[in-house]
Every structure is written in C-alpha cells, then in structure tokens.
Amino acid sequence: MRRFLLSVLIVAGCHSTARQPDGPSARRIVSLLPSFTEILFAIGAGDRIVGRTTWCDYPPAALAIPSVGDGMPPNIEAVAARKPDLVVLYNSGPNVTAAKQLERIGIHTVLLDLNRLEDLGPAARTLGRLTGLEERAESLATAMDSLAARPRPPSTASLAFVVWDNPPIIIGTGSYLHQLAALAGARNVFGDVAAPSAQVSLETIAARDPQWIAVLSDSGATPAFAKRQEWRAVRAVRQGHFLLLKGSLFGRPGPRSGEAVKELKALLAR
Amino acid sequence: MKWTLLVIVAVLALAASVVLGPAAVPLNELLRSDIVWNLRAPRALLAFLVGGSLGVAGASLQALVRNPLADPFLLGLSGGAGLGAVIAIALHLSGPWALPIAAFVGALAALGLVYRLGLIGGAALDPRILLLGGVAIGAFAAAITTAIVSLADAAELRNAFLWLWGGLSGASWDAVLVVALYAPIPLAVLLAASRPLDLLALGEEPARYLGADVEAVKRRVYLAASLLTAAAVAVSGVIGFVGLVVPHLARLTWGHRHRALLPAAFIGGGALLAIADTLARTVVAPRELPVGVVTALIGVPVFALLLRRWTIA
After folding, report:
1. Of A133, A264, B170, B307, whose Cβ has the fewest other Cβ atoms within 10 Å?
2. What CA–CA distance (Å, rounded) separates A144 from A128?
3. With respect to CATH, is domain A157-269 assigned 3.40.190.10?
C-alpha cells in the first residue's frame, strides 16, 4: 500500500505523461521557461530546442532559436507549429490547462516546479531522463543539490528586495531570491514573511533599516522611486545603497545560480 | 451633537493613524520620529483629504444623476487613470511624479470624453447618458490598457495594475500639499451648488420652476466632482466604496440638505479612509492589506446597521 501511494506521489509530483523511462529520447523540444532553456543547454540538449520564450536570453545561442511568444500563457498554436515531441512547462495553473490542450493534439508535455534552489536538481534529472542525457544531467543536478544544501554563512550585511514601489512589495522567505541572499551572507530583513512576496508599509521598511535595497534591474539604472520624497525615509535609499541585480542572472533559478551568489557576494563586499 | 460626534471621530481617526503603525515608535519619541513625521503624518492627512474628496464627489454625483448607485469612479475616471499610468510606464517616462501626472491626464481625458458624450443631442447634459457614457468610456480605456499590458514586453507593465490599486503607499508631504492646494477649489464649487442640488433632487422640471439654472448647475457639479476624483486617483489610485457609501451614511443621519450633507460627507469620508488605512497598515503587520478591502469590510456592516435602524424608525 505504501509503495503504491509512493508511486502515485511520484507520478503526481512530476505531472509528466505516461512516457516510459526507456522510451525514445526527445529530439524536438519547446522550452517555455528561461530556466529550462538554460538547464537544457547545460546538459547538452541545447541543439534539440526548437522553440523558446521571448525571455529565454541565455546562453547567447538560445537567441538563435525561434521564439513562440512570452509563454504567459503559452500560445498553443505557435508551440504546436514547431512540431515538438516534448514541451517543458513551468507548473502553474494556466500552464496545466495549456499542457492538457497540447496533450490532446498528441504532443508530450512535462510540467516541472521551479521556484526554489532545491527544485533545480529534480528538474535537471527529469530533463536528463527525457532527453537520454542522464549522466550530464546527474552531474548538474548534484552540483545544484549541493548548492541548495550548502550551509549558510553568517550574515555580514542586511538587505530588502523591493520588487515594486507603490505599493511596496518585498521578497519573503518563500522566494528563491531570499535563498540567494542567505547564501551570499546577506540577511533579508523580511525573514519573518513566509510568502514569496508581500505588500508591506513603507514605514516597515524604514523601521527595519536594511543596509541595502536590492532591486532587479536590467538597465542598471537606479530605480525611479529613489527620487520620491516618501522613500527618503529609508536610510539605504537616502544613502544610495542600491544593489542593482540583472534580471536575467538573478531573476531565475538555474545552472548559473552559483554564479549569482558569487556576484551578489562581490556586490556586498564593495 | 451629531456634528460634535463626527468631529471627535475624525480627530480620533487622525490621531490613531499617526500613533499606530507596524513600526514600534515609543510615545515619547513620537514627535521626533522620522517615520511618524515623514511617513505616517502625510499618509494620515492624505487619507483624510482623499476620503473627504471622494465622499463629497460621490454625494454630488448621486444627486446629479439621481441614482443611488453612482460612485465617483463609475464615470470612467479609473479606466482613464489606469490607461494614463500604463502609457507612462510603456513610454519609460521617469521622474517621481510621472505616474501620478499621467494618471491625472488620463482621468481628465476620460472626463472630457464622457462630458462630450453627455452633451450629445443638445446643450443639456443628460444624466443617463453621463452614466452610460462613463461606463462605456471606462470599459474602453480598460480594454486598451489590457491590450497594451499583454502586447508590450516590458515586465514592469504588469505592475501598472498594482499602482492603480496601490492606495496611499505613495503618500508624501508633496502629495498632501498638492491635494491641499487643489481640492478646495472643486470643493468650494460643489458647496456653493448646495441649494441647486437640493432642488435638482426634486427632478429637473421642478428645479427649473423653482429658479435653478439647471443646465449650468449640472455642468458645474459634474466637472467639479470629476476633477476632485481625478486628483484622488492620481495620488492614491482607485479606492472603492468611500464615495459610494459615505454619502448614503451622511444622508441617513443629516438628511437631504446638501449644505449639511456635503460637509458631513467630507468629514465622514476622511475619517473612514483614515481609519481604514490605519487598519490596513496594522492588522496583518508586517504585511499590509489593500486599503480598498478594508473600506469595504468596515463600510458595508456600518451601512447595513444604519439602514436597518433607519427603516425601523
């Protein structure tokens, strides 16, 4: 009975179709999340990707692959037109619906969770199994698992991730960014917020007084709210202590997560 | 007695919103605290001014269109403001005031279109066409907004909706100053129209016989109430419910005379929004609730209670 439950859980856990482990390896893959694109390239399946999202900008070779749109939600016809034998989707409500539609027209799909560091290893292993590249996938997965399990260094700085300014929305412990900060030795001042992100009052940010305000910014420019009068009540804003993090490196868990930790460490040490 | 009570409630609401907050500020440091002085005080005052403006705008519009369901945001202004904000983000307009100004301009554009529609078929502003036109223009602006958000690839565009429902998070002394200088003009216009609004409540024909310049009053009231709402949406986004329920609460207690009704709606609206915002900041601290949720959660039960007393009496 327990074994049966376990296998049900495993099947429910990866939401994949009834693909046999020894079935044919995927040859034409559409990847609908930048993280999956990066993992596929890292395990040596980059040349099998025939479709990507507009957000998939790494590695540079990915840009040569035709885009099937922003993937939010996936454009079923654009995906099907690439004639894939495997579509990899991020496990979310709209994507579950999209996966069902793709299955109905005979395209295999796999829905994978990818919210936190510990999701990377299992995702790499699943993609390795589906592409027949188990060995390289296993070595990537091992590296990712050890990054996720790496002991957190004592924190030497404090920060708050601000993802939107009006209303202020910050990152809590449920988020991947919180994990990156912890690995880089920075204490998230919103470590008591369990959700991935939450709306808070500006005065809470001011009172918790982080040394740094971290924002995802592709332009590398200081955010506009830095100039707003009410934000000047936050000391880090007054002092211009912003960590401007590139979205394509910091905004997604992936094979480069270790690199993101290193870069954050370097920024904090400035 | 009623007035004393209302003023006491308003003063208590303002005091509470300065004293209470998610950050612990000891009472003896209250006057020296940067958080209290630069964040809570302007936010409390802005809440009061915006809530009061919405209360007065709602009361006047309900009299103008003679429809108890009229709400300041019903006339297309929130749709226009949202479109303005989204365009500002899409065009990468920067500067601390880019979004509020763009939202204000968007609301003004919607106002102008609805006003023009209201004049269709002659020089008389038709309240029914105002209502329909407002809903239509609002829906149209919302459709364009959604189209821009889903077609443009700037990720921050998705946050434009957040801005529109952002409440009083952007409060600053600058914003308080702008509203404090701006709002008195439309407020004075509406207060000056108290007597004609009383007459208008009887219907346009009777009002005309009783000597009101009905057409001029309608235009003045529509423009003043909309300009008041446009400023409110520019500094605090769309805050539902205050402009709908506060006028009814005031009417249940103060009757239908606008000379008393409008000031009561102002103080009552201000007090309600100040209380609602204080609760929004504190009850789930360190997180914060959208203020519109709280205005509805306290407004509806109070309204139901008063409605019951009123119908029994």
Report:
1. B307
2. 14
3. no
| Ordered DSSP codes for A57-108 | --SGGGGGSPB----SS--HHHHHHT--SEEEEE-SHHHHHHHHHHHHTT--
pTM exceeds 0.80, yes or no: yes
pLDDT tens-digit series, residues B68-110: 888 888 888 888 998 998 898 888 887 778 888 999 999 999 9
User: Which value does ipTM take for this structure?
Assistant: 0.82
**Of the partner residues B39, B99, B155, the one whose CB lies closest to the CB of residue A202:** B39
Closest Cβ opposite residue B22 in set A195, A201, A232 = A201
CA distance A115 to chain B (A): 18
Token pair listed for B59: 């009361």
CA distance B129 to B71: 15
Q: Is A184 on the interface with B (CB under 8 A)?
A: no
Tokens, residue B138: 């609002």
How do the domains of chain A map onto residue ranges? 12-148, 157-269
Chain B hits for A224, Cβ within 8 Å: 94-96, 98
Which CATH code for domain A12-148?
Answer: 3.40.50.1980
Cβ proximity of B274 and B14 under 8 Å: yes
Closest CB to B166 among A167, A207, A247:
A167
HSE of B23, CA atoms in CB hemisphere, 13 A:
23
Size of interface A-B (CB pairs under 8 A): 93
- Do A165 and A228 form a contact (C-beta atoms < 8 A)? yes
Q: Which of A170, A173, A190, A230 should we substitute to test contact with B (largest number of B Cβ atoms within 10 Å)?
A: A230
